[in-house]
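Lecture notes, continued. The same structure-token format from the folding unit now serves as the input rather than the output. Read the line below as a description of shape only.
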């Protein structure tokens, strides 16, 4: 498992190690179907075996990109929404990026495992906790949605444990791990029917074959 490379970290947050940037449609969770500009940062301290972007784990493999340059590219997109994902975005100071997006009336949607405190103000937090590095309380208390990946029957108990950490208004989603979606989908359907506080989340972008 690899994570943030301290020798390239920019404390000011004016540069971030970026694996990729692209304009696409959100495929998961509450904002499914919405157009947004995606920023995928490099560096992760969870190392999930089923991760489909393992190349994002090592921040040292990805160049430091100036936030001001990204803002120019974001401004050229019709949609006024940005998804900050990873890797693990909370390894970095997001204050400058979030402030500048807000100043341009661009919504900021954060996807995180919640393993570190948030630095920056965002409009929406999708908390997707990982067993190898559970979330810290400060992120749980302000999360807008909880999205738990289900790869085995044992993950339902993990999901319930995480649901007790978030606030009452937080939306709850269960999402099948892609490589086991055929096996787990019927289990998730049955579970949601028995526990209707949960909703289904699908990786619809993979069905649509878009990034």
């Amino acid at each position: 498992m690899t994570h943030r490379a301290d020798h390239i970290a920019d404390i000011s947050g004016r540069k971030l190690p970026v694996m990729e940037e692209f304009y696409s449609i959100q495929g998961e969770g509450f904002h499914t179907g919405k157009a947004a500009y995606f920023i995928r940062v490099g560096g992760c301290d969870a190392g999930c075996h089923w991760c489909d972007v393992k190349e994002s784990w090592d921040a040292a493999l990805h160049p430091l990109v100036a936030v001001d340059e990204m803002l120019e590219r974001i401004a050229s997109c019709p949609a006024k929404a940005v998804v900050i994902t990873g890797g693990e975005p909370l390894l970095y100071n997001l204050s400058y990026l979030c402030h500048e997006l807000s100043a341009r009336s661009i919504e900021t949607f954060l996807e995180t495992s919640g393993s570190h405190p948030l630095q920056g103000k965002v409009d929406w937090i999708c908390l997707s906790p990982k067993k190898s590095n559970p979330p810290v309380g400060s992120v749980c208390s302000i999360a807008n949605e909880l999205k738990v990946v289900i790869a085995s029957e044992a993950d339902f108990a993990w999901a319930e444990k995480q649901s007790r950490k978030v606030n009452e208004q937080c939306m709850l989603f269960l999402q099948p791990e892609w490589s086991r979606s055929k096996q787990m989908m019927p289990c998730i359907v049955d579970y949601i029917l028995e526990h209707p506080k949960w909703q289904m989340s699908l990786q619809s972008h993979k069905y649509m074959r878009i990034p």
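Point for the exam: The radius of gyration is 17 Å.
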